[in-house]
Design a protein that fits this description.
4 helices; alpha/beta; four-stranded mixed sheet; Nucleotidyltransferase, domain 5
Length: 152
């Protein structure tokens, strides 16, 4: 039983627009992938601690990862290795950005320091002092649990 005017033309949907939208969504999700694993670089062997706890979900809001390699260079995702003077300038820019985000001009960003086990304590201390000078007050130090070798 025919519902039309006698034409046998089949109506096929044009899938070009739908495929275009699917490709755009795919590209969007590829571009927005979370690079958190790259911030925890394998070039930094963490010191061993007797106990450590993983980051909690409330800690993940605003973090800056600073990795210190065994030569004392600061490794930041997407940046070339930095000496302390270049790190000072980089931190100053991040502090300005953090202050601009808050109405009270305070910094709520936590600094996650991941230092190589062979780097001197003096280097880590200077880095943390530099962060404090720029207005960062929250710090998290990462270590490896003694028995598992798993980084936290």
């Amino acid at each position: 039983m025919s519902h039309g005017g006698g034409s046998d033309d089949s109506a096929e949907p044009d899938l070009t627009a739908m495929l275009d939208v699917v490709m755009q969504l795919l590209m969007y999700f590829i571009m927005c992938v979370n690079f958190i694993d790259q911030e925890n670089t394998a070039d930094v062997l963490l010191p061993v601690a007797q106990s450590a706890k993983p980051l909690s979900h409330e800690d993940n809001n605003d973090l800056l990862f600073l990795n210190v390699d065994q030569d004392g260079k600061v490794l930041i995702l997407g940046e070339a290795p930095k000496d302390m003077d270049a790190t000072r300038l980089w931190l100053e820019n991040r502090a300005i950005d953090a202050k601009d985000k808050n109405a009270d001009r305070s910094i709520h960003t936590a600094i996650v320091v991941r230092a190589h086990r062979n780097v001197s304590y003096d280097t880590v201390y200077k880095l943390m002092q530099m962060c404090k000078e720029k207005g960062f007050k929250r710090f998290k130090l990462r270590a490896t649990i003694a028995n598992t070798g798993e980084g936290r």
